[in-house]
Amino acid sequence: MTRAILTPTATDRLPGTTLGASIHPEHRSPGTVGRRGSKEKTEMPYPEEMVAPMRRELSDNGVSELKSAEEVDVFFEEQTGTGFVIVNSVCGCAAGGARPGALLALQSEVCPDRVATVFAGQDTEATARVREKFGDVPPSSPSMGLFSGGELVWYLPRHMIEGRDPQSIAFEIVAAFEAHCQKAEG
Predict the structure, then answer these.
(1) Torsion region of 22: left, alpha or beta (phi above 0 gives left; psi -120 to 50 gives alpha)
(2) What is the pTM of this model?
(3) Which of the residues 34, 61, 90, 155 has an alpha carbon 20 to 30 A from that of 27?
(4) Do 125 and 168 belong together in one domain?
(5) What does each C-alpha distance from 58 to 6, 106, 157, 174 come to in angstroms?
(6) Is there a single domain that holds both residue 77 and residue 141?
(7) What is the extent of the structural domain holding 10?
(8) What is the pLDDT of residues 74-126, one digit of tens each?
């Protein structure tokens, strides 16, 4: 028996529907971003007041925010060393696992040279540009990618974050840092 694997997002569900139930575009709430490749697009689906505390959880701990495609381009202009990008999200697995796990990992002795975040569902252009840098990896939020010399060398998608505690996520991130980053001098 063949089973389809569905990866629905919060924007694909209505109360009372099952996972994977599609919402016709005209029934989506204002601000819903269309599927990848879709012409449907709006600028900022979530109010800044709602996402501000979720942003600060990373930015207050030294993670640079990239809010535009231009800022993403500047981040990636630096081709030497390593860069770590966190695709932040409003979902529970971002709050309960991704952000705390990333922050734990960034306390490691071995860390990337540059660390930044984009906010999916808020910084739509920046998120789209980062996802271009991820190449053929399907879009996922939250997610994280590690780059070395401008190339993606490691990626942690949402399905590897969901249901895991921050320590387990941090352990996996630190293993990637140790495999691809240089230990800080001093």
Answers:
(1) beta
(2) 0.76
(3) 90
(4) yes
(5) 30, 11, 18, 17
(6) yes
(7) 1-42
(8) 999 988 899 999 999 999 999 999 999 999 999 999 999 999 999 999 999 99
